[in-house]
Amino acid sequence: MPSEEQAGRELGGVSPEGYVAPPTDLAPVAAASRRTMQANRGRDTGPEVLLRSLLHRSGLRYRVDLPLPFDRRRRADIVFTRVGLYVFVDGCFWHGCPVHFVMPKTRRDFWSQKINGNRRRDRDTDERLREAGFSVLRIWEHVPPADAVRQIAETYAALVAERGWSLRPRSWHSLGKV
């Protein structure tokens, strides 16, 4: 009788109890594709880091990668907690940009479900944050960073004014705010 370790090896690493999920008829993913997908970052992407740098340079302060109040597994890329502004920098591929998204040629059903699920989750997140009284901005990764900063700064300024506060970050001169 083989030990559990030997049985696992004989089954190619699958536990003797069976599969966690049933096997599929899908062709296996190529090793290079798998490595590329694993290398995609969940936070601190190039567009996010550049946007945060420009926001900070303009005098705005914010929180990064903050869990959402209603679901700790979902996270906002940039949050201005004092005014309740949640900013998401959406990747064109993962969030199905209407301008740049191209459906992959392989495993189309999988990717269609994945991208549509992401879109549904994005809409649900926006709706739940707004119901809780927060403001939401979604910025596509292809938006020029200066335009994104301007949009965020204008929204931030409007929320500050709405509250009757008089906050004026020191470099709003560069954004044409003063």
| Major β-sheet profile | 4 strands, mixed
Order of helices and strands: HHHEEEHEH
Number of strands: 4
Mean pLDDT over the full residue set? 83
Name the poorly predicted regions.
none
State the end-to-end distance. 80 Å
Biggest β-sheet: strands ordered side by side in the sheet: 1-2-3-4
- Helix segment tally: 5
Strand content: 15-25%
Share of residues in helices: 25-40%
Assembly level: single chain
The outline comes out as: elongated
Radius of gyration: 22 Å
Q: Structural class of the helix and strand makeup?
A: alpha+beta
Describe this structure in words.
This protein has 178 residues and is an alpha+beta fold. It has five helices and four strands; from the N terminus they run H-H-H-E-E-E-H-E-H. The chain has helices spanning 4-10, 31-38, 46-57, 108-131, 145-162, and strands at 63-68, 71-80, 85-90, 135-140. Strand 3 (85-90), helix 4 and strand 4 form a beta-alpha-beta unit. Helix 3 (46-57) crosses helix 5 (145-162). The longest helix is centred in the last third of the chain and has 24 residues, at 108-131. The mean pLDDT is 83.
